[in-house]
Amino acid sequence: MLDTLITSKTRIKLLTKFFLNPQAKAYLRGLEGTFGKSSNAVRIELNRFEHAGLLNASTEGNRKVYTANTNHPLYPDIHNILCKHLGIDQIINEVTTKLGKIEQVWLSGEFAKGNDCTSIELILVGSAIDCDYLKQLKEKASRLISRTIQLTLFTPEIFAKMKNEIKPTDIFLLWEFRSTHDAL
What secondary structure does DSSP assign to the chain, as a single string? Predict the structure, then answer.
């Protein structure tokens, strides 16, 4: 669907790279290799996004490094469109409303790094999770979005210990439970 609205495949890949995970950073040659496109094609799109204020650029050594401008007024909208395009919003809705005591849902793997792929990897943090029902939801959601879904379950205690060892660009928090007391 997104490829109907945005005809440039390079542009879609850049949006996915930078707007799915706000921690994503990349430079021209790295993107050229990842996307399998010429450096000129990638450079043109990077310049367009930078000129529009969607990307920030900084210099690290002799490299110009790009990151998403999370302060841009369109950032939340673009992020939400990508989540809907990839089916992540549907997965989260199914999982968090019917599964048990889910505290957090994290995106990991290639999508967390901003790379499009056929498999969505999610980390579920919680307790009292109905594993049989989870398997049914996973299969249903997988058919619904036409992508395979890989799930990893952790208790909050174990995930808290492991999280410090994971690079921020390798995971991205998609959803977190907030009680009514937290909002006050």
Answer: -HHHH---HHHHHHHHHHHS-TT-EEEHHHHHHHHT--HHHHHHHHHHHHHTTSEEEEEETTEEEEEE-TTSTTHHHHHHHHHHHHTHHHHHHHHHHHSSEEEEEEEEHHHHTT---SEEEEEEEEES--HHHHHHHHHHHHHHHTSEEEEEEE-HHHHHHHHTTS-TTTEEEEEE---TTTT-
Q: Kindly report the pTM of this predicted structure.
A: 0.64
More confident residue, 11 or 4: 11
Instruction: Domain 2-68: give its CATH code.
Output: 1.10.10.10
User: What stretch(es) of the chain map to CATH 3.30.460.10?
Assistant: 87-176
CATH architecture group of domain 87-176: 2-Layer Sandwich (3.30)
- C-alpha to C-alpha distance for 134 and 130, rounded to whole angstroms: 6
Percentage of the chain lying above the pLDDT 90 cut: 30
Please compute the mean of the pLDDT values over residues 127-155 and round it to a whole number. Answer: 85
